[in-house]
């Protein structure tokens, strides 16, 4: 047999083995009697080449839901995945049987990328310990203490905006709002005056933007890393964040802590609370207890998470709210009327008490989070074999469960006319009549967003400040209908957010 024949048979053997592997693998759900969406070799139910946001990948599966099953089987490459399609099942995963679905199965590399080991990504005892340590930092009392700081930053934001919005002007609101929330989080998390409105290219703004706009790897590689974490860590040393981003935030945290401890500086902000935990103290909460000291890397990772979650999700929530209010002027005027009426009762001051009275503004925030949830899909990992109630179907240990928050919140069977922006969906009587997990803007269960109080507070203050002083309208640069960026893991507009801004 000549060498050409040998090579040919070798290639035939490899290709045959490749297809036999996938054929066997793709029989996984069929062998278990589970309804599933037919995969394609070798990507499974992931798109081939076409740039698609992950929310749309999952939506394509969710939209094939069948009332005979609470979920559909799918495949990411060769890995079987559960896509939840029934709200009772979602409630089981997030709340009722949380102990069996407490992990997220996200890629973490503590050695090469210490910032990746933050509370959102960690699982098991590490997550449980950090959650117990950090939950007291987000009590309503702590939020009330931070409230004046956020208002102060909002006032500076308004002053800078007033210089730009003389008469009527088209402004790119995505960047402006990200600068506002960067300044808030920079102050509350690091005690640093970023002043991003005056210096748009500030280091905090620049490195924060890089996380989402310039990731180190394309989405499919990040997904592969989560599927095969040991290989990604051991052989490829894959990071979640860019090296320059890691270095900047690690250096900033080290310098901030060193300065505060040397000069005995106390600011009663998030960093102070982390330093307290680093030095082995509890946070004074009656239920808190000493759970071991935080390392400098753990402090940096949690401060980094607070920064990312605080600046990006709140800024995009306010941005999408302004977008919808520009398209729905009657809703915008109703919100402005409520703001004026409440502030008139409080001497024109934005206070903790006055903000709480603005229930319609809060409904607008909730409806924005329904239509534009920053985290479009929630991920949970099965810890032990789980048998579905009243069924022979078993979700095996290690299987990922994807909960399509975006699809659920756009399902016409759950929300009538889901593309219509209607804040009254969040009137108490309507909320009461819906399934408890029909709204997942902050997740749900023990792994819901730990900073939801801060996020709502920041978004309320920002929106009230803007609506009190400016009117927002669509312009020729406004993207209608909205198009989303495919590379940003969070929901974000593809072409920015251009609106016409007028002084009230």
TrEMBL record:
SUPFAM superfamilies: Cytochrome P450
Cofactors that this protein relies on: heme
Any one annotated GO CC term: endoplasmic reticulum membrane
Localization, UniProt: Endoplasmic reticulum membrane; Microsome membrane
Molecular function terms from GO: heme binding; iron ion binding; monooxygenase activity; oxidoreductase activity, acting on paired donors, with incorporation or reduction of molecular oxygen
Keywords per UniProt: Endoplasmic reticulum, Heme, Iron, Membrane, Metal-binding, Microsome, Monooxygenase, Oxidoreductase, Transmembrane, Transmembrane helix
Record's bilayer topology term: Peripheral membrane protein
InterPro entries linked: Cyt_P450 (IPR001128), Cyt_P450_CS (IPR017972), Cyt_P450_E_grp-I (IPR002401), Cyt_P450_sf (IPR036396), Insect_CytP450_Detox (IPR050476)
Membrane-traversing stretches: 6-22
Superkingdom assignment: Eukaryota
Amino-acid positions noted as binding heme in the UniProt annotation, renumbered to this chain: 449
Similarity comment text for this entry: Belongs to the cytochrome P450 family.
Protein's name according to its UniProt entry: Cytochrome P450
